[in-house]
Amino acid sequence: MTKVSSVAALEQLIKEKSVNRTADKKYISVCGGTGCLAGGGNAVIDALSKELTNQNMDIEVVRTGCHGFCERGPLVVIHPEGTFYNRVKPADVPDILEKTIKNGEVIKKLLYRDENKVEYEKEKDVPFYKHQMRVVFENNGHIDPEKIEDYFARGGYKALAKVLGGISPDDVVDLVLKSGLRGRGGGGFPTGVKWKSCRKATGGPKYVLCNADEGDPGAFMDRSIMEGNPHSVIEGMLIGAYAIGSTEGYIYIRNEYPLAVHRVKVALEQAREYGLLGENILGTGFSFDIKINRGGGAFICGESTALMMSIEGKVGRPRPKYIHTVESGLWDKPTNLNNVETWANVPHIIEKGVEWYTSIGTGDVSNDPWGGSKGTKIFSLVGKVNNTGLVEVPMGITLRDIIYKIGGGIKNAKKGRTFKAIQTGGPSGGCIPEKFLDEPVDFDGLTKLGSMMGSGGMIVMDDMTCMVEVARYFVDFLKDESCGKCTPCREGLRQMSDILNRITKGEGRDNDIDTLYELGRVMEDSALCALGQTAAYPVLSTVKYFREEYEQHIKDGYCAGKQCTSLIRYTIDPEKCTGCSICAKKCPTKAISGELKKTYTIDQDTCVRCGVCFDVCNFNAVIIPSGSEIREKLGE
Amino acid sequence: MDAAKLDSIIDGYNGDETAILAILQDIQAEFNYLPKEAMKRVAEKLNVPFSRVSALATFFAAFALNPRGKHIVTVCMGTACHVRGAPRVLEEIERDLKIKSGENTPDMAFTIETVNCVGACALGPLVIVNGNYHGNLTTSEVTGMIDQYRGQ
User: Fold this and answer.
1) What predicted TM-score, i.e. pTM, was given to this entire model?
2) Which residues lie closer than 8 Å to B99 by C-beta, 6 or more apart?
3) Is residue A457 part of a domain?
4) Residues A384, A299 share a domain
5) What is the CATH number of the domain that holds A385?
6) CB A209 within 8 Å of CB A307
7) End residue of a domain, out of A130, A164, A197
8) Nearest CA of chain A to the CA of B76: how many Å?
């Protein structure tokens, strides 16, 4: 292929390629995201390609990026009708070709059925998708991420052509500023303000970085964007570099994401081949190129200054930020760092305009970039909810809509499970209880509730989740990930961890809650970086909303979520046990004995409290006493 | 340790000392862990103190400083996996293989490791063995999953 030599030539190229994805074009898209591949997606793609060749059928099979509905993979969508098949196996392929492709017949058994057994034929009608607003993810279901031509076909790089074709760098900065775009990586800092400061900063070269070190456990939207539409990130960075006046960029990706690393690498090579990266792009005199850096499994490297240290080949520890990175960042040069999702928003803002972008979301950003939250946000909806996956929604939607309309409600609700809390914002976020489910979700709303937007993890927790244990989990996570540079974070987390571990073992003391609170406040005031400053949020928010659970643990040795193994026992209710023996068969330590069709019993000395018996029992006969119930039921 | 292979990995980065992290990642991918001799060679060839290489190797969780087993069982301990029972799955794997996380079986067939999140949260609890993803695992499925790799 030859390099595109001018803006007009790029526009022409996009026009030519767009015939491959017209609204009436027939093609089969198969999800090639990590979730679906784990469920056997590649085998489905291979079977489809093979069968199409055998039958001499001229229909394109597109191995796309993530469609978001990972729970139901592998996913197959037949265009242009939009027929949606879930949990597809290679054996289903001949049927799909024969019935659906040739005869337009829908195969019932491959259709998605919701928790009330309602069937859905089209992708757009499935509740999981219906209530979403897909902007950044729009192309994920249509393009092969390893083919730049597919991105062109969906209008990709049009925004770049528009910018290089005659918008001045200052005007680009102004557009982003007016759009109200705020950082999707967690901070919510207005992107335009950052760009403006970096553009104004003196000295050079200037660097443009992409933070793809998505370390928040439970969040994977950046992974899906890079795996599904890497060019949208590259295009965003190109526009940013042009606006800021940068010639060199870096994408810092976690090494735990091998597929994302691979796809970004391929995308960069293809963009270079077309001359969209490199010297004198489109003959405009603007030059820019991007290198990839792989992270090494350190959560702290998602922090801006730590990330820059790591790119420099040093240990990733943050530094104080009284000197802003936009003035002195990577190699002490002006540096602009944005997150993957933020970059992927940029081409849409340029292409569709500020007015369109600000019509989505909350607040008013016309005079103040902090005045609201505009555009969409991708959340990873996971945990104890029926439809798990990635959801893109307009800012301002309620938590209830996300959990119940899109998520389909609480998993195993029929077995009696109920909603307890939703944890947002990653390890430093907070747990939000039921009473706030109707609050709008945006940067400022979540902060008001004592949580945060963070990178967009949403972990739904049911009544069988122990909030003290959740706080312990996050604190232990952060204790391990603290870089150790500043004392409040390093020592504060260690003390908190000791206290929380004691409480979950039933060894809590009367003043523990006060001590936790005090430690949290000191860390908030005095830690060096955001990791330490916010590390106590999971504790502070659970103490605030679920204080009674802490008190029950400390005073009565009672764990309401039945998760703290030192405080619970598993036992069998003789009234309900039918003697089916499944628990005895599944018990890994052979702690359950009895006779078929009679009551089984659990030997407490051999039981390791793994919970298998509870999970496998179909008659709710396994019960979990805790605290004083143990004394009453087992006489211990 | 294949010294020529090692040198070719290091030389691939043209003496760029900012690339130490990438070099160490490539070495681990080749040798399955970071041998101390290899780290010394990196320091020597890039002309940086050994302490700098060792600081990086010990700071980042992805590096193993001791030899690992043939099959690496990586248990995701991310939040989504955690609330769906990852700790129990890990305990069950530890019971099954009779080793703790971070250890090798005596025959060097298996190593258990944990990772903070692999971003496949909808499939939790999730275990990766040699790059193969095993999603929605229950404790009762652990032995069957491990058996697929036994004797291979």
Assistant:
1) 0.94
2) B105, B110, B112
3) yes
4) no
5) 3.10.20.600
6) yes
7) A130
8) 9
Query: In the predicted model, is pLDDT for residue B10 greater than 80?
Result: yes
* Same-domain status, A268 and A330: yes
Q: What is the pLDDT of residue A34?
A: 84
* Helix residue ranges, H only, A158-229: 158-164, 169-179, 191-200, 221-228
Give B65-118 pLDDT, tens digit per residue. Answer: 999 999 999 999 998 898 888 999 999 999 999 999 999 999 999 999 999 888
Same domain, A191 and A307: yes
Domain harbouring A614, CATH code: 3.30.70.20
| pLDDT above 80 for B8 | yes
Interface probe with A: pick from B93, B98, B117, most Cβ of A within 10 Å: B117
Contacting residues for A368 by C-beta, under 8 A, at least 6 apart: none
Is there a domain that residue A66 lies in? yes
> Could you give the C-alpha distances from A402 to A66, A389, A415, A523, B61, in angstroms and in order?
19, 11, 22, 32, 34
Q: Which residue of A has its CA nearest to B129?
A: A38
Test B85 with A611 for CB contact under 8 angstroms: yes
Find the CB nearest B25 among A214, A294, A299. Answer: A294
| Whether A227 and A330 share a structural domain | yes
Q: Please answer yes or no on whether A313 and B21 come within 8 Å at the CB atom.
A: yes
SS3 A222: helix
Residues A458 and A475 in one domain: no
Q: In the structure encoding, which two tokens stand for residue A600, read together? A: 């089984």
- A298 in the same domain as A185: yes
Q: Do residue A313 and residue B135 have CB atoms under 8 angstroms apart?
A: no
Contact status, residue A600 vs residue A584, Cβ threshold 8 Å: yes
Domains parsed from chain B with CATH numbers:
3-59 (no CATH), 71-147 (3.40.30.10)
Which of A365, A389, A409 terminates a domain? The answer is: A365
* Residues lower than pLDDT 50 in chain A: none
Cβ contacts of residue A22 below 8 Å, gap of 6+? none
Nearest CA in chain B to A561: B83
- A237/B92 Cα distance (integer angstroms): 45
Among candidates B25, B124, B135 on the partner chain, residue whose Cβ is nearest the Cβ of A296: B25
Non-local CB neighbours of A517 within 8 Å, separated by 6+ positions: A540, A543
Distance (Å) from the alpha carbon of A172 to chain B's nearest alpha carbon:
33
Range of the domain at A590: 569-634
Q: Does the ipTM surpass 0.85?
A: yes
Shortest alpha-carbon distance between residue A271 and chain B (Å): 23
Q: Which residues of A touch B96 (CB under 8 A)?
A: 588
CA distance A335 to chain B (A): 17
Domain check: are A223 and A330 in the same one?
yes
Q: Identify all chain B residues contacting A465, using CB atoms and an 8 Å cutoff.
A: 83
The answer to whether residue A381 is domain-embedded is yes
User: A275: which 2 tokens?
Assistant: 């001359």
Question: What is the domain-level CATH number for residue A331?
Answer: 3.40.50.11540
Chain-chain contact of A218 with B121 (C-beta, under 8 angstroms): yes
- Token pair recorded at residue A125: 């009608």
What pLDDT is recorded for position A35?
84
CA dist B130 and B137 (Å) reads: 16
Give me the number of domains chain A comprises: 5
Written as one letter, the residue type at A460 is: V
CA-nearest of A597, A595, A594, A600 to A571 is A600
CB–CB of B21 and A214 under 8 A?
Answer: no
Residue B84 confidence (pLDDT): 86
Q: Residue A22: its pLDDT value, please? A: 79
Q: Which two tokens stand for residue A192?
A: 């335009």
- Taking the CA of residue B125 and the nearest CA in chain A, the distance in Å comes to 10
Residue A525 domain flag: yes
A-B Cβ pairs (cutoff 8 Å, strict) = 158
CB-based contact A619:A609 (threshold 8 Å) = no
Let me know whether A621 and A485 are in one domain: no
